[in-house]
Design brief:
The protein is an alpha+beta fold. Helices cover about 60% and strands about 10% of the residues. It has four domains: about 15-195, no CATH class; about 220-350, GAF domain (Beta-Lactamase, 2-Layer Sandwich); about 355-520, Alpha-Beta Plaits (2-Layer Sandwich), CATH 3.30.70.270; about 525-725, Hypothetical protein af1432, CATH 1.10.3210. It is built from 26 helices and ten strands. α1 (about 10-55) runs antiparallel to α2 (about 60-85), α7 runs parallel beside α10 and α19 (about 555-565) packs antiparallel against α20 (about 570-585).
Length: about 725
């Protein structure tokens, strides 16, 4: 599957930062709008007060001049503010506080320099109240009204008990009027702010929905889609927890969850209300709980499943605004979710066996390769079980394929119920299952195999009359039994061969087969002739057990030869013969005396030729085993017919490179140094084309993924390689 864009979840921390940024921007915009409104009111009051001052017949010319000077200063302030705003200046809190104080100062000065308590210019004080409301809100406006009331009463000493007694209602009424103006202006400002904030939130939600839709459309990974969907649902509402739940014939299953505090899991105490979920799934409409603390909204239905968004909170209640937000969210995501469900279903069908519900053979191989590609593969054990249904052919022959399918399904359920949750169970073939046992060595895998055999006994699944289902199980483990995925499968298959040969209804391990071959003595040729490829990996391991210095030799040779052969133009049909020759190239050692310090015993190619030929392997394999130590330039003296075959030439280069990189018979070299030493024999000892293929394999890293890092016993002086004969 192609790599999909990564959708980042909006974490609560990011939401807090975003909220603070929006609030800061909103406050700055409000102050700027407040200054603009103050400009309008200021000009209006300056004109009115100027007209009252100059048209008042009871004022002297000197008093009029003084008031005009104050009004002129106030007008200069207004012009300065207007110029700054026109040029794009964004007023901060200090700027707004300064203009507010100056408004109060000029208003108080006009009242102080006029008739004090009885001055008609007290209207100027209303300007300070109104502009404070539009700048800072209702609370600041109310506080400024209290301050201005006190200033109005006491500036210039105009307030006396006598004045109060003359007209107490007017005095109290004017003070009350200041407060009423402050409250009404502040209330209107607050409502405008609320509406504006709601508009901003709706715009943010719309932007979030657009972003969500783009992400959902560009991704087909259903887990990512559900994660982003539930996170948006929580953040766009007052919900504390959210879950995406899939309703199907099998019941309700939670597929994604999110919390406002950023934690992935929903509290364990919060259970699924299946009645509420069923109502929403059946009606296709949103459903609230009776206390409105829970809300379920359906998103999409298809292929027998309905996707639901379930939101909950402990303190507050869900409002219609929350429902509107979630409806908008689910409406935007309905098509992508439906597409993702279809994609998920098609992908599941492509990776799942339709009869048993297990993963199919292709998906099994992909997961096994992925396990071998893990960075920590060398530090983590891995085991493989191959399970064969005993006497299954007789079930189909006597009772028909329909009953055979039922037996396959029952056996698959038994295995699935017996293994651990992290183990992968696959239908490997017609009547074979495979189990990838993660993080388990050979002993643990063998115990699991016995549990599977016991479980199928306990189930007593009827196969044919008077018989019940039994399993034969082959067990192999990395790194003891195989260094690569292909070799591990072959080892498990050969252990399964041993289980069936020993009477079926039992588990057998690969080391058991290796031990049997080590003890075969004169029966080795007969066993190879009987089993052929079914035991050749075990034969290679038995050969490698002859000395501590040869541990892992055959497995490494197979991996290197495979990499070289693919780059040297060996056809795919001949690759298997090359691998067989690599496994069996040292089989001649099995008939030679054990012991000694020599890495390669003289005469083993000839003995190997006899064994492989007697076991009826193809001629190419026999020739490769016989000539894998022949020099490439032998043809110069003996003629073209004496040139070693291609597979033998590949094995010759492979053996030298493997010995150098493993430290067999010499100091261990790095891949590049080992390649350089092999190149010294190019054209004489080794085929130049094969050496070039090895160079390409080393250069492109084709060997590093497969070759294990083995530990050989330390030697004071390494023995020399026995020259080819």
């Amino acid at each position: 599957m192609s790599e999909q864009p990564v959708m980042r979840k909006q974490t609560p921390r990011w939401q807090d930062v975003r909220a603070k940024a929006i609030d800061a921007t909103f406050d700055a915009d409000r102050r700027r709008a407040g200054e603009r409104v103050a400009l309008v009111f200021r000009w209006l009051f300056l004109i009115v007060i100027g007209a009252l001052n100059n048209l008042n017949p009871s004022s002297t010319p000197e008093e009029k001049v003084v008031i005009d000077v104050v009004l002129f200063g106030w007008a200069v302030l207004n012009v300065t503010v207007q110029v700054l705003l026109v040029r794009g200046y964004r007023p901060g809190k200090q700027f707004s506080l300064t203009t507010m104080v100056l408004d109060i100062f000029f208003a108080a000065a006009v009242v102080y320099l006029s008739n004090g308590f009885n001055s008609p210019f007290f209207l100027a004080l209303f300007l300070a109240v109104i502009t404070t409301a539009v700048r800072f809100g209702a609370t600041a406006s109310f506080l400024s009204a209290l301050v201005i009331s006190l200033l109005y009463l006491f500036i210039g000493g105009s307030f006396t008990p006598a004045n109060f007694y003359v007209d107490p209602n007017a005095t109290i009424g004017k003070m009350f009027l200041f407060l009423v103006v402050a409250l009404s202006t502040g209330y209107m400002t607050r409502e405008l702010e609320r509406e504006r904030r709601a508009a901003v939130e709706r715009a943010a939600q719309a932007d979030s929905l657009r972003e969500l839709s783009m992400n959902l459309v560009s991704d087909t990974d259903i887990k990512d889609i559900f994660d982003v969907l539930v996170d948006h649902a929580v953040q766009m509402t007052t919900a504390e927890h959210g879950r995406v739940i899939v309703s199907s014939q099998d019941g309700f299953s939670v597929v994604a969850a999110a919390n406002r505090d950023g934690k992935e899991a929903v509290p364990e105490a919060e259970v699924i209300d299946e009645h509420q979920l069923g109502q929403a799934a059946g009606s296709g409409e949103a459903v609230f709980s009776s206390d409105r603390k829970n809300m379920v909204v359906p998103i999409a239905s298809g292929d027998g499943a309905t996707v639901l968004v379930s939101l909950s909170q402990a303190t507050g209640v869900f409002t219609n605004q929350d429902l509107f937000a979630v409806d908008a969210l689910t409406g935007s995501s309905a098509v992508p979710v439906a597409n993702a469900l279809r994609y998920q279903r098609s992908r599941q069908e492509a990776t799942t066996d339709g009869l048993t519900g297990l993963v199919n053979a292709r998906e099994f191989r992909r997961r096994l390769d992925a396990a071998f590609a893990r960075p920590d593969r060398r530090a983590v054990p891995l085991s493989l079980l191959l399970i064969d249904y005993d006497h299954f052919k007789s079930v189909n022959d006597q009772l028909g394929h329909q009953h055979g399918d039922l037996v396959l399904q029952m056996g698959a359920r038994i295995v699935r119920a017996t293994v651990r949750g992290q183990d992968v169970v696959a239908r490997y073939g017609g009547d074979e299952l495979a189990v990838i046992v993660a993080d388990a060595n050979g002993a643990a895998a063998q115990r699991l195999a016995y549990r599977i055999v016991d479980a199928v006994h306990a189930a007593a699944v009827s196969t044919i009359p008077s018989q019940h289902l039994t399993f034969s199980v082959g067990v192999a483990s990395y790194p003891e039994d195989g260094f690569t995925a292909t070799e591990l499968v072959a080892a498990a298959d050969q252990a399964l061969y041993l289980a069936k040969r020993e009477g079926k209804d039992r588990p057998c391990t690969f080391p058991q087969l290796v031990t049997e071959l080590e003890l075969a003595d004169g029966n080795l040729v007969a066993m190879l002739a009987e089993a052929g490829p079914q035991v050749m990996v075990a034969v290679a391991h038995a050969v490698d057990h002859r000395s501590p210095i040869t541990q892992g030799h055959s497995s490494r040779v197979v991996a290197i030869a495979d990499a070289i052969g693919r780059r040297a133009g060996v056809s795919s049909s001949d690759i298997e013969n090359l691998r067989a020759a690599a496994f069996l190239h040292d089989v001649g050692h099995m008939t030679l005396p054990a012991g000694g310090d020599g890495f390669e015993a003289p005469g083993h190619p000839e003995e190997g030729e006899k064994i492989v030929a007697g076991a009826k392997f193809p001629g190419d394999v026999v020739a490769a085993v016989r000539h894998h130590h022949d020099r490439y330039d032998a043809a110069k003296s003996d003629g073209p017919a004496a040139q070693p075959p291609l597979m033998a030439r590949i094995l010759a280069v492979t053996e030298r490179y493997e010995a150098l990189t493993a430290g067999r018979g010499s100091a261990r070299l790095t891949p590049s140094d080992a390649l350089a030493q092999v190149k010294e024999g190019s054209g004489t000892e080794f085929d130049p084309a094969v050496v070039d293929a090895l160079g390409r394999a080393v250069q492109d890293g084709g060997l590093e993924l497969n070759l294990p890092d083995i530990a050989l016993p330390a030697v004071s002086s390494a023995p020399e390689l026995v020259p080819a004969t």
